[in-house]
Amino acid sequence: MSTIEIFILALIQGLTEFLPISSSAHLILPSQLLGWADQGLAYDVAVHVGTLLAVMLYFRKEVGSMLVAWVGTLARGKVTVDGNDGNFDGKLAWWILFASIPLGLTGYFGKDFIEEYSRSALVIAATTLLFGALLGFADIKAKQNVSLEKLGFKGAMLIGFSQALALIPGTSRSGITMTIGLMLGLSRTNAARFSFLLSIPGIAMAGGYLTMKLLTSGEGVDWQPMILGSVLSFISAYACIHYFLILVDKLGMMPFVIYRLLLGAGLLWFVLA
């Protein structure tokens, strides 16, 4: 990989991991449109580590409170996922863990099928348009009057099941989870925050899977692109989370909806022309 490829791919990973525009689609497109070679497992691991560290550092207070409360539920032998009893941080931790199961199971059992049949530019164009329009509909029509505490275990699981769809490139993990959060009545900011917290187990699972593939593949590790990619993806992801929360509170999801529709239309034209 050239330095410019390392730089661009790391920025794409960091910026698009948490925006509702699909990181997987944007990482596939350079090879589809520009003929770039696959970046390799080691680099994939590096950029996932960078984005994981970014979201955990940005939400360090929430993650710390959830972890302490979650350990407390284990120590007391009282696991509460719904109702008004129990510490909310502990419940939120359990919601996120349970809501991550559909993504893990779908990824484990469906990864080969997804990689073989859904990584084409046509699929990316279709999912970019479809789920972009759905995000716009949710942003306009949703009531946005439900607090995160009132989301409930069932609501958290609905968001978790929707997250599994993000394994199809172009869907966007953050996009589909925010869409369902908005449809369930969460405010834009709360839908985004829950989506970001939910991303932590998801990114960790993806990074762990890629690490296992790397260890068993015998692929050599070039540390320079790994370190550079990890640092760049961390910086861009951290900045992206911060400014996205500000932007979405002021302007809503429509700038990203418009971008998705333009991108999907452009890809469709490229494929069919």
TrEMBL record:
Does the record bear Nucleotidyltransferase in its keywords? no
Q: Which GO terms describe its cellular component?
A: plasma membrane
What EC number(s) are associated with this protein in UniProt? 3.6.1.27
Topological type in the membrane: Multi-pass membrane protein
Q: Which GO terms describe its molecular function?
A: undecaprenyl-diphosphatase activity
Any single GO BP term: cell wall organization
Keywords, comma-separated and alphabetical: Antibiotic resistance, Cell membrane, Cell shape, Cell wall biogenesis/degradation, Hydrolase, Membrane, Peptidoglycan synthesis, Transmembrane, Transmembrane helix
At the top of the EC hierarchy, this enzyme's class is hydrolase
List the Pfam families hit by this protein, alphabetically.
BacA
Membrane-spanning segments: 6-29, 92-109, 121-140, 152-170, 191-211, 223-246, 253-272
Q: Is Membrane given among the entry's keywords?
A: yes
Q: Tell me where it resides.
A: Cell membrane
Which chain positions lie within coiled-coil regions?
none
| Known catalytic reactions | di-trans,octa-cis-undecaprenyl diphosphate + H2O = di-trans,octa-cis-undecaprenyl phosphate + phosphate + H(+)
Superkingdom as given in the UniProt entry? Bacteria
Q: Which InterPro entries match?
A: UppP
Q: Which family does it belong to?
A: Belongs to the UppP family.
Protein function: Catalyzes the dephosphorylation of undecaprenyl diphosphate (UPP). Confers resistance to bacitracin.
In its miscellaneous comment, the UniProt entry states: Bacitracin is thought to be involved in the inhibition of peptidoglycan synthesis by sequestering undecaprenyl diphosphate, thereby reducing the pool of lipid carrier available.
Which HAMAP family does the entry link to?
Undec_diphosphatase
Provide the protein name: Undecaprenyl-diphosphatase
